[in-house]
Amino acid sequence: MIHARPTFWGTGYTKDEHLHRVSTRIRAEEVTEYLGEVKTEIWIKPRHLTNVKDGEYVDVLDDLEVIPELKKRPKVKVIAMSLVHKEYLEKELPNEITLIYHHHINFERARHIPNKELLGGMVGTPSKQIYKVVADIKKLFNFEPYFNYKNREDMIAYYKKIDYLVIWDFGKKDCYYRHPTKIMNAASFGIPTFAIPLDGYREVEGFYFPIEKIEDIDLTKITPEFCDKIYKEAEKYHISNTTKAYERLDDNIPDS
Length: 256
What we know:
Blueprint lengths: L1 E2 L4 E4 L5 E4 L1 H14 L6 E3 L12 E3 L6 H7 L4 E4 L2 H10 L4 E3 L20 E2 L6 H11 L13 H10 L2 E4 L13 H7 L5 E3 L13 E2 L13 H10 L5 H4 L1 H8 L5
Parallel strand pairs: 1-4, 4-5, 5-6, 6-7, 8-9, 9-10, 10-11
Antiparallel strand pairs: 2-3
């Protein structure tokens, strides 16, 4: 069973409403809907380990507060979400670490059809900082962000609409819990991404365009060959492949 606090709709850094706890939707709701029952006990970002038994799994994600508790509970198993994340946790914890990637949203393997005039996009959590970036991008490009999606279907409709994605990040480049899911979401439609490079994107180096400033966005780099390349790479992150890791966890449950 996967234990997780539910997603909810509300405000955050701005007055604009948006979906919170998206990781719950990805790592719990969608996995369970796809696989049915998961026999292994998995806890998604628990506030504490009071209810977690030895031998069960904690999916850490970006939860910093649970790390000290896990150090005291070496028999609790831990799930990482990227190579960089796994390496960090292995240095910090004595616990057994298992890597399970985020799956992308394109279960149906739909392919994007380019617009005559390329349209760029951005997804994520709205903030005053990101609105400033969006305004600057709009001065140079045809651009339409999307921050108030509610479900996977909303996101699919949006990715079918845009021709490239921009990911902006204000944090440290070596932050261990950054992961390439947005890049693979776009790639699963054959849509390239321009992104500030982060250590957490190691798995997808060569499958997105690194930028340092808005002026680095070069739409001439978007070619049919590159779009085909990233579309094929995204198959690794299809839910049919990432969920095999959950099935392996279930296979290792000892008989009672």
